[in-house]
Specification:
Helix content is about 35%, strand content about 20%. With about 800 residues, it is an alpha+beta fold. Strands 15, 16, 17, 18, 19, 20, 21, 22, 23, 24, 25, 26 and 27 form a 13-stranded mixed sheet that branches. The longest helix is centred in the middle third of the chain and has 21 residues. The chain is globular, with a radius of gyration of 31 Å.
């Protein structure tokens, strides 16, 4: 899934807006994998001189193998090995020609065997990834639409994205959500020829199934509905001739279904197979399917092994092998049923998933099981949401019942110990997977801590708050009083924010940690590409709350800065930090939030390791800017201390416009000016689809006008005081920090008067006039601010989502609007 996620976190903070760089997702995956690698559970190397299938040697230790996808154990069958060796001896290590010209002599026999298995025309491909890349663009026509299950394999999604260049719409639905699927079908039923739904037969992480029979019923209602099933994890261990779960459910292959199986994994060889019962579509795919035409063909050894496996599949022996595996699956299910382990999906597939919730718990649990002699896979982002980390256990014919029982006993013993080691409990794990906990657990926070949760800033001691949290942004005590008034009692739900204040103290009543959080409605595309937001805004004309979610966040969308006081030197500092994270987890469930955001951390934050372990992903926010004015008393002195390059910028791009404009400081605007301020801010806001937020409530501006801490720096053309070019909305925090919170501008006159640069200059000028030693210049437009002497700071946010649907959907939408 690693190329499909683009995500958002956000800020509306002064001036021009910006978006997270596109390489951040890859950086995030790298950081997650590095964390897991350092924990010793990822990117391991097997050792040993041979494999039996029952065990695998890792780090010179022989472990019982519960991580294979060769469920029937055919990769160790002597007949496949013998056939592969024979093929190499006869035809060499490879047959280096495109199959379009000429095929290896063994290919005809393999194709005949596989065709007999499916009783349908088939296409053999090098592997399933290349197969999807060849088949999907050939099968899907320009007047079709693709709908993806959001858990369908990455290789299917990646191939589907190729159709964007042909303007084929690509939609996504939540996993196995037939109601959502039908809504998408209705959307396209009168405009598209074929509606392709693409899904896995058996899903590789949780081992759950596609609802094949229900889907076929739906296709009877909507004849243009077609299906593309990737059933590589359903292959061999179930179905007639081992042709997999999907065909077992269908009985016969209808013409509106394209079915992918595999010759690797359980089949024991290499390659993949497409079965297609529609003659015209089959000819089109077979004649020219991109990688099917130009890629190298299977090596002779793979073809030889696949023929040997196909013969087993065509014999009664395949059902004996399936039954042997079924007995092991049933036994594992029976053993698990007597435990309180969080099995995420109970079914009859050979894939099982035991949830751990937090990654650090998963690392601990996997290492403990390896210490007991059992190898299992770690399930981690991006294959699953970070907070849905767990262990994937696969059952194969190699596993003996004694091995299975031993694994369950080891898990039952070590699971609570892994939870204890990582300061969590079963209730939190079950909550992460939206399951009912089998036991209720007490919070892990030490009783030496006192945690206060207050509903309004008026309940907080003002001097204490300003001592620890004041001095930056618009969230000193007075600033939060202002925000609470402005964002409550509004007509629209997006304009009403819930505030909570968290103070964690020791037994001496000394604060160790202090912060505030908000619950508010965010657009899911807040920091997606502008063209995606533009498409979503068209949808929102009909449904204003299309793809929006409640988000629990440190701080709020109005503020920027270090929203967290934390005494890391305190002996209970770590416990206070863990207490906050557990508290926010409970708040998320209590308030029904879809995402939790911790934001405005430095690049080298000491919270980094802890937050990854708790299931948060790190993304880079727009840079933050500050200006230090200590020791400077005039603008002339300030300009002189700039670099020569920045002084040239001032003389060329700012100073020449002084004669064209005039600026005014307004602390109490009239009704006309307030309306103009709203209009100009709206011009900025509507143009920033790269940071797509809801508007602010109208009463916000009236509250500013009535608040002694706010003022407006207004720029007008000389001689035209009624023509407002731009306005900077500025807050003064305890006479110590000047905060230009955001800006409004007339874009039609922006370049004529260099409005934005002039407003930046006038903001510095105003801070000096007020004798305020620091400006919090906010996020975004750091290039322009740096040219006026601002210091730029990298800032990061940590995100925790309930699922990956929005992340993946936004990635799928990129490039098609």
């Amino acid at each position: 899934m690693t190329d499909k996620i683009r995500f958002f976190l956000s800020q509306i903070k002064s001036n021009k807006m910006a978006k997270i760089k596109h390489h951040n997702f890859l950086n995030t995956v790298h950081e997650v994998f590095t964390d897991a690698k350092q924990a010793g559970v990822l990117h391991l190397y097997a050792s040993g001189e041979s494999f039996s299938g029952r065990t695998i040697e890792v780090g010179e230790r022989e472990l019982y193998h519960f991580g294979t996808t060769g469920y029937l154990g055919l990769e160790q069958d002597f007949r496949l090995k013998t056939a592969a060796i024979y093929a190499i001896e006869k035809y060499g290590t490879q047959f280096p020609l495109s199959k379009s010209y000429i095929s290896n002599p063994l290919y005809r026999e393999l194709e005949d065997c596989i065709r007999e298995m499916y009783d349908q025309p088939i296409v053999i491909t090098k592997n399933s990834t290349l197969g999807h890349l060849g088949v999907i663009p050939s099968a899907v026509e320009d007047n079709d639409v693709i709908i993806l299950d959001h858990q369908v394999h990455w290789s299917v999604q990646n191939a589907a994205k190729m159709l964007k260049t042909r303007s084929v719409p690509i939609e996504m639905i939540r996993h196995n959500n037939l109601e959502m699927l039908e809504d998408k079908i209705k959307k396209y039923q009168h405009s598209k020829r074929h509606i392709w739904y693409m899904a896995d037969g058996i899903y590789s992480m949780y081992g759950d199934y596609a609802p094949v029979k229900e889907l076929m019923t739906l296709s009877q209602k909507y004849p243009q509905l077609h299906f593309y099933f990737d059933d590589v994890h359903g292959m061999s261990w179930v179905g007639k001739n081992g042709t997999g779960y999907v065909l077992d459910q269908l009985g016969e292959l209808p013409e509106n279904v394209l079915l992918f199986g595999t010759l690797s994994k359980t089949f024991g060889a290499s390659g993949a197979v497409l079965a297609c019962s529609n003659p015209d579509r089959y000819d089109k795919i077979k004649t020219f399917g991109g990688p099917l035409t130009f890629s190298a063909q299977l090596e002779p050894a793979s073809v030889g092994a696949a023929i040997a496996s196909a013969k087993i599949h065509l014999s009664p022996e395949i059902y004996e092998l399936q039954q042997e595996l079924r007995e092991r699956i049933d036994y594992f299910n029976a053993c698990l049923s007597t435990t309180e382990l969080p099995l995420i999906d109970q079914n009859e597939s050979p894939v099982f998933y035991i949830g751990t919730g937090m990654p650090k718990t998963g690392y601990n649990f996997v290492n403990r099981l390896m210490g007991e002699g059992f190898y299992v896979n770690l399930g981690i982002f991006p294959a699953v949401p970070v907070k849905n980390t767990g262990v994937r256990i696969t059952i194969s014919r190699h596993n003996e019942k004694a091995d299975i029982k031993g694994l369950v006993e080891a898990m039952e013993h070590h699971f609570p110990l892994a939870l204890e080691d990582t300061q969590t409990n079963p209730e939190r794990v079950f909550h992460a997977f939206k399951l009912e906990p089998k036991v209720q657990s007490e919070p892990q926070v030490t009783t030496e801590l006192e945690i206060e949760i207050l509903n309004t800033i008026d309940q907080v001691d003002d001097k204490q708050w300003n001592r620890y949290m004041g001095g930056q942004g618009v969230y000193d005590y007075e600033g939060l009083q202002f925000l609470e008034e402005a964002f409550q009692g509004n007509a629209c739900k997006e304009h009403n924010w819930l505030f909570r204040y968290v103070i964690i103290k020791d037994s001496n009543d000394t604060p160790i940690l202090m912060t505030f959080v908000t619950l508010s409605l965010w657009k899911d595309d807040m920091l997606a590409l502008a063209e995606i937001s533009a498409a979503m805004e068209r949808e929102r004309k009909e449904n204003p709350y299309h793809l929006t979610s409640m988000v629990l966040s440190l701080g709020c969308l109005f503020t920027e800065g270090d929203h967290l006081y934390w005494d890391k030197s305190h002996e209970l500092g770590g416990a206070a930090r863990d207490g906050l994270l557990e508290l926010m987890e409970k708040m998320e469930g209590q308030f029904g939030a879809k995402m939790t955001v911790l934001r405005d951390f430095e690049a080298e934050s000491t919270w980094n390791e802890t937050l990854y372990g708790h299931g948060f992903l790190r993304v880079q926010m727009p840079n933050s800017c500050t200006i230090d004015l200590k020791g400077i008393d005039t603008m002339e002195n300030y300009i002189e201390q700039l670099s020569s390059r920045n002084r040239r910028h001032f003389r060329k791009d700012i100073q020449p416009f002084f004669d064209l404009t005039q600026s005014e400081i307004i602390s109490k605007a009239d009704a006309f000016q307030i309306q103009e301020f709203k209009r100009l801010f709206g011009e900025v806001q509507k143009r920033n689809l790269g940071l797509n937020t809801f508007s602010f409530p109208d009463q916000l501006f009236e509250h500013m006008n009535d608040n002694e801490h706010w003022e407006f720096i207004v720029l007008t053309p000389k001689g035209k005081p009624k023509t407002i070019l731009g306005v900077m909305f500025c807050y003064t925090n305890q006479n110590a920090v000047h905060v230009p919170a955001f800006v409004g501008m007339d874009y039609g006159l922006l370049e004529t008067y260099s409005t934005y640069r002039q407003l930046l200059y006038r903001t510095i000028e105003r801070a000096l006039a007020l004798n305020i030693p620091k400006i919090d210049f906010g996020m975004t437009a750091s290039f322009e601010k740096r040219k006026l002497g601002a210091k730029v700071h990298e800032k990061y946010a940590y995100l925790q989502t309930n699922d990956n649907f929005i992340l993946e959907m936004i990635g799928v939408m990129e490039g098609q609007h």
